[in-house]
Design brief:
By secondary structure, this protein is of the alpha/beta class. The chain is built from 12 helices and 11 strands. It has a 5-stranded parallel sheet with strand order 7-11-10-8-9. Strands 4-3-6-5 form a 4-stranded antiparallel sheet. The protein has a two-stranded antiparallel sheet with strand order 1-2. Residues 1-34 and 37-81 have low confidence and may be disordered.
Length: 291
């Protein structure tokens, strides 16, 4: 893997996906030890780790705020601080490895790159990505890590301690928080009557091919969740992060996970289709089969 300087890493994350992991099992390993698990996953039983408000699917673990209860929110907060997102990389060592921690701090002070050291020394699976955690916002991290990350000056490596050990973390960039919201099936239907919407909007169906064969909506590109390893790394080359993006599945659960992940990849406005194609068939178009 090519190792990038902090500046190059920040640029890279604005252009390509944070996750370039090749399989669902790699995705699970990445987030079971990256700082993204504030609560216990429903389908994957793992120990908690520093940054976590992630809701875990057996295939794709995605950000999920404790207050969301599975429903996306379009609120970006009432103040500038709550609407701020930061791009973070880190490395993690065991609590007892104080000597190693001091050595790594000295090497960073001497000009070595945190991402290079993370690959070699971090005990977090994010080491495979040079310690890159992607874009995060408040409410997604355990308190100690969150406080350190959101008070750290840009590009300065700082340390913090959590129940998982010692972290050296670096904030590479910051931006205004992106928008994620639910859209009701009837509102989507109205939008789809506009040719301009169908031409400009990015429509993604994350159901499996056998589901799509039963029922589908025009204009949606099928990206099966079970094939995430093949399309995930290419998402920002296939789609424009600045355009409105709509995600659909059967009942709205899988699509919400993908919508949250798209936010971490830099997509500025993502809409989850509430209730999925099932709700669309019941509320809008009975000619669409249900299953």
């Amino acid at each position: 893997m090519l190792r990038a300087s902090p500046a190059l890493a920040a640029l890279r994350l604005s252009l390509i996906p944070t996750l370039s992991l090749s399989s669902p099992s790699n995705l699970r390993r990445f987030f079971t030890c990256a700082p993204f698990q504030r609560f216990s996953p429903k389908t994957l039983h793992t120990a908690r780790h520093p940054l976590s408000s992630f809701s875990f699917d057996p295939l794709l673990p995605i950000l999920c705020h404790p207050r969301s209860k599975g429903t996306a929110s379009c609120s970006t907060g009432s103040g500038a601080e709550s609407a701020r997102e930061i791009l973070v990389q880190h490395l993690l060592v065991k609590e007892g490895d104080v000597k190693l921690l001091l050595e790594l701090q000295q090497r960073i002070s001497g000009g070595e790159d945190l991402s290079d050291l993370a690959v070699e020394y971090s005990i977090c699976p994010s080491k495979r990505e040079g310690g890159m955690l992607g874009w995060v916002r408040k409410g997604q991290m355990v308190p100690e890590f969150e406080e350190a990350a959101f008070t750290a000056p840009l590009n300065k490596v700082v340390k913090c301690k959590t129940q998982f050990g010692w972290h050296l973390l670096q904030v590479l960039s910051e931006r205004e928080e992106s928008l994620l919201k639910d859209i009701q099936p009837d509102e989507l239907h109205m939008k789809m009557q506009d040719p301009n919407f169908m031409e400009e909007a990015q429509l993604i169906d994350v159901r499996e091919p056998d589901e799509v064969a039963i029922a589908s909506l025009p204009g949606f590109e099928v990206l099966p969740l079970k094939q995430f390893g093949s399309w995930g790394p290419e998402i920002t080359t296939k789609f424009n992060i600045e355009k409105d993006t709509y995600v659909m599945c059967h009942h709205g659960g899988r699509s919400l996970q993908v919508a949250k992940w798209l936010q971490t990849q830099g997509f500025r406005k993502v809409c989850n289709i509430a209730g999925g194609i099932h709700a669309y068939a019941l509320k809008v178009d009975p000619s669409v089969p249900t299953y």
